[in-house]
Amino acid sequence: MIAYAIVSLRQFSFWNAILKILPLAFLLFCHNIPWASPIEPTKGSSAYIIKADGSLALINEDSRSKDGFEVSGDSLGIMLTDIMADDIKHPIFKIGVKVGDPLVFMHVWYSLGDSNKYNIGEPIYLYGDGKYHQYNIDFMAHNVHGQRIKTLYLYFGNSINDISIRDISLYNHSGSFSDTLSIALESFLRPKLIERANVNSIVSPRVFNLSLIASLNILAIILLIAAAGYYFWRWKKYKETGLVRKIIISLLAILMFLWVIADVRMIYNELYHIKLTWQGYLKPQNNNDSYFYDFKGYYEFLSSIKGNMSAEVKAATFYMPPNYIYILMAKYYLYPITVTDQKEEELFKVFYKYPFAEIREDKLYYMSMDGKSVSGETGRVIKKYSGDTFIFFKAKNE
Amino acid sequence: MNSILFIISITTTALIGFFAVSVTERNKQIFSLPEKFALSFPLGAGIIAFYLFYISILGFNITIISTVPLFMLGMFGILKLYQIRQSSNNLFFSPQRRRGAEKRPTDSMSLTPRLRVSAVNFYFLRMNQLRTRLDSFVNYEECWNKHSWIKRALLILFTITIVWKLSFMFFNAIVIPPIFDDAITCWSYKAKVIYFNKSIEMNPDNPLFLGGAYSLYPLAPSLFRVWIALIMGGWHEGYIQLHSLIILVSLLLLIFINLKEYTSFFMRVLSCYLIISVPLFSTHAYAGYADIILSCYITICFILLMKWYFTKENNILIIAAASMAMAIFTKNEGLVLYLPAALITFSYYCYKVAMKLDEKVKAVSLYILTLCIVAGPWIVFKIVYNIPLW
Q1: CB A270 to CB B184 under 8 A?
Q2: From CA B232, how far away is CA B10, in angstroms rounded?
């Protein structure tokens, strides 16, 4: 069927042209071709490292462009303000990142001058081979005309250690076909995993500024209309020329071909997924600190809690970072133990990466997320994992 | 030990489904044996879910003791299987096999060579039996010999991809802990609550009402997970998550088997490939969601409606209606989206089918009655407890 379609396709000069352009696939190996023209950034633009407590540390100009700087330890990512001087139609953001850990990913957020922050929709998994790699982030779909991108936020997930950044720059797309193809290929080849909260949606690579899945859907609709026209309406009068039939078969062949290509890409994602699972979950690297997605060590922590709970404990309350998934996971994994979120009356208290709690002279001092502080609760520490992660059992007579 | 207990849980499920299909078709050979096998697991899982729900309504606890009737149904399934094995005109257990099995080594041989020859004979006999059985399922000539090298290459490619996808799903289901939102807040969470409480909470004021989360969501996927946990004697994430994957395999088998009457082997493999390569399927098969289970039930329903249209065997409608009821008990979309679609399709078939009016009325009554008997209590329950239907 595909062979037949190819023969019929040869009759169209347009497809001959496409076949000639196909060798451009070699661009696949040309990540560093300077295919876009640099833009002079705004003079007042600044870059900051975002610390875990929300504070910002300024990065000087030289570090940004040449020497590079490190994002590690208690840092969450970087923020770039006032990046765009003019209203640019097709901005491309380039960044060089060096990571030694294959599980690190980067979340890109941006703001358009108002107070809202928007996510570009997918985490970018970084090459963890300890060398600098350039990542191009195409903002064409996100740039709103007349309301230019003002601030960029890059957050790193999984392991924030030894992440080096340099060569941050903004480019404008030249508009040529080879540039477009290059961007499409890069988007196509970037691994995309299904997000935990977005299991019902597909993160599709964007090819020619249109998602691959959308292209397939459009093609399928055209095919359906053509097939319906051929079989139900009076298009059969063209049967003598065979034109409609050839178009239908050609479309079907192209659709199948694209589907297989999309699936090959999906298989590539699946392999990547298995690699991440193997490296992060099945073969933990540092002291059994395993993780999957961005829940580093949390599964082990929950298992450990189970192991440290006596039979009479029926309920526990959790103090943890303000991410709803932590409490949901605790509720599910610890059931039949009833898990609550920051309930002061509970005796069994779990603090997980919670900086507003500490043990002093065997007494517990902490502040809940709503600002209420509790001081000097007596009891015993069941297990202490680190300064901000421990299990405390409050004395009953308190 | 866990693996053995898990195999017991899914085998019993399949046997219950097998028994239900065999009883429904009575003495008529409506389904081939592979088709019955493919239908067995999803139908068995649905029957178990309904059973656990109904005994809870009646006030019984969900314990291993209360599942004894299910094991009895499973035993009946074994008996049915044995009956079919005895019958000679079956597709799978063909007469050749029985003739072959009567062969005995002659007494003129000494004991040791006789045993050796016997073993060799037995081996070839088994191979022949296997080949004969497979021939009834897939024909080598049709599958391989008559194809060009391009089609052969594509067949290999598609088969490898299908195997890879299933392996990927299996790996994720067995290895990765449930992480996706609806699994840990609804489907598996409800199952865990019901399993540890040994009952379904029927008091709407209790936070654990109908499993403690999203009371408007149906219970079938969760209740089947309760069944696996009951048989395994504990909550084992990896095994419990395999639920959707097994249903997906059943769905693929069903499609592969049912397309035999309409298209070539190549197109059947291609169809299975197209289904399994839908990206969300490969995630849903290990994410602990209910969508694949729903897909399987509605596919069974529509395939069987079509089968009824061509065969005019009313018994098929009982299974079609039961599977639609199971779809309703799996996800609300079953009731709101797919039931109307099934009814419209059935009405169209009724209009077109070459049957007398009284026979048509009988068919419609059978379909609606089965639907009401199986799914009715769940819908009535929702209405009584003022739970939104959607």
Answers
A1: no
A2: 11
- Domain-wise residue ranges, chain A: 2-18+209-282, 35-190, 298-394
Please tell me whether the interface predicted TM-score (ipTM) of this complex is above 0.85.
no
pLDDT digits (tens, 9 = 90+) for A261-306: 888 888 888 888 888 788 777 776 655 555 555 566 777 788 888 8
CA A138/CA A267 separation, integer angstroms: 24
With an 8 Å Cβ cutoff, the interface of chain A facing chain B consists of 2-3, 194, 196-197, 199-200, 202, 259, 263, 266-267, 270, 273-274, 277, 281-282, 292-293, 295, 299, 325, 328-329, 331-333, 335-336
Residues with Cβ within 8 Å of A118's Cβ and at least 6 positions away in sequence, in order, are: A109, A110, A111, A112, A142
* Domain span at B323: 2-7+49-57+149-384
d(CA A316, CA B192): 18
Q: Is residue B26 part of a domain?
A: no
Q: How many Cβ atoms are within 10 Å of A285's Cβ, its own excluded?
A: 14
Nearest Cα to Cα of residue A206 among A252, A140, A251? A140
Rg of chain A over Cα atoms, rounded to whole angstroms, equals: 27
When CB atoms are compared, the residue of A200, A325, A335 closest to B280 is A200
**Cβ distance of A270 and B274 shorter than 8 Å:** no
Task: Say if the Cβ atoms of A196 and B283 lie within 8 Å.
Answer: no
Q: How many CB pairs under 8 A join A and B?
A: 72
The model's confidence at residue A372, banded by pLDDT at 50, 70 and 90, is confident
B13 in a domain, yes or no? no
User: Which residue among A202, A263, A328 sits closest to B184, beta carbon to beta carbon?
Assistant: A328
Taking contacts as CB-CB distances below 8 angstroms, the residues of chain A near B164 are 267, 270
Whether domain A35-190 has CATH 2.40.50.840: the reply is no
CB A339 within 8 A of CB A329: no
Query: Which candidate, A101, A105, A95, places its Cα nearest to that of A64?
Result: A95
Encode pLDDT of B353-385 as tens digits: 888 888 999 999 999 999 999 999 999 999 999
